Amino acid sequence: MSTPRTLHVPDGVEPAILETSRGAFAVQTVRVDAPRAHVLLVPGWTGGKDDFTQLLPHLAEAGFDVTTYDQRGQYETPGAPDDDYSLAGLAADAAAVAAAVADEPAHVLGHSFGGLVVQTAAIEHTARWHSIALLCTGPGALGVSDRRPLQQMADAFGVVPMLEIHRARQVANGSANPPEIEEFLERRFVANSPDSLRAMTLHLLDAPDRIDEVAATGLPAWVGYGELDDAWPLPVQDDMARRLGTTAVVLPGLGHSPNVEDPAALAAAWLPFL
Predict the structure, then answer these.
(1) How many CB atoms lie within 10 A of CB 250?
(2) 199-242 residue pLDDT tens
(3) Pairing state of beta strands 23-30 and 129-135?
(4) Where are the alpha helices (DSSP H) in 125-161?
(5) Spatial CA neighbour of 147 closest among 195, 206, 193
(6) Which of 124-133, 152-161, 238-247 has the lowest mean pLDDT?
(7) In a 10 Å sphere around its CB, with 0-12 CB exposed, 13-18 middle and 19+ buried, how is residue 215 labelled?
(8) Beta-carbon contacts of residue 14 (< 8 Å; ≥ 6 apart)
(9) What number of helices (H) and strands (E) belong to the chain?
(10) How far apart are CA 8 and CA 259, in angstroms?
(11) DSSP alpha helices (H): ranges in the chain?
(12) Do 255 and 232 contact (CB within 8 A), yes or no?
């Protein structure tokens, strides 16, 4: 989970409910005069739009309109048990959010699990995008070492109360966050749809490697990760970049969530590509 360092919402960042062809999504947006292009930011597992709040102004300063959103069933975007939580469905949501904001194609970045959504969106909605960016993600499912805890969590969603799951995770992982951050993390996690989180967890366990299909779209691709990232192995991310015809950008001193750890550094690393 990405842990915001602050809950302050910078000037110019606006929360909203965005109506799309696939329903309503909770978003944060920043708009500029005469934008160069639109950027869409897709959050990861147990995360949400707030993981990108501090990044939005950096992209706006460079001339981009930006939108980030809670995926279906995440935090402030409702989810129902019979909703489509397949990767294809979540990718269609991303394309619908982008289309509701601008007619022109967007640059899209996916963080962690969001990267799997972006890969599917690139394959199945190619014309919607100018480029794709994959941040701290991999070509398909996580490694074998991650299977047991993720499978246990998948089995718990919808059976064990969300608050109980969250507090067990906090005990297991330890926590030294300020009280207001802890309260936010608890509120966000508990607000998630168990069905959505279960589906996303299972995708982390069994998503196929579709990078060759992504490469075949011809979309320009950017790959980046923190040098201390502990999710997908770094050599796997390096190989993914190679298969996409690029070289991964390594963010010194950062871990799995550069978007909250140092949004200015992430912007500086990504903007030359944009």
Answers:
(1) 16
(2) 999 999 999 999 999 999 999 999 999 999 999 999 999 999 99
(3) unpaired
(4) 147-156
(5) 206
(6) 152-161
(7) middle
(8) 28, 29, 30, 31
(9) 11, 8
(10) 15
(11) 56-61, 87-101, 113-124, 147-156, 162-173, 179-191, 194-206, 211-216, 234-243, 258-261, 263-270
(12) no
Domain ranges of the chain: 14-141+208-270
In angstroms, the CA 235 to CA 212 distance is 17
Q: What span, in angstroms and rounded, lies between the C-alpha atoms of 192 and 203? A: 16
Q: What is the DSSP letter of 71?
A: P
Closest CA to 201 of 165, 149, 266: 149
pTM of the model: 0.96
CA 47, CA 124: separation in Å to the nearest integer? 24
3-state secondary structure of 222: strand
Q: Which residues contact 150 (CB under 8 A, 6 or more apart)?
A: 142, 201, 204, 205
pLDDT greater than 90 at residue 177: no
- The tokens for 159 are 């059976």
Is 169 exposed, middle or buried, given 0-12, 13-18 or 19+ CB atoms closer than 10 A? Answer: middle
- Helix/strand/coil for 164: helix
| Residues across the chain | 274
Beta pairing partners, 39: 66, 107
Class of the CATH domain delimited by 14-141+208-270: alpha beta
Q: Which residues are paired to 18 by β-bridges?
A: 25
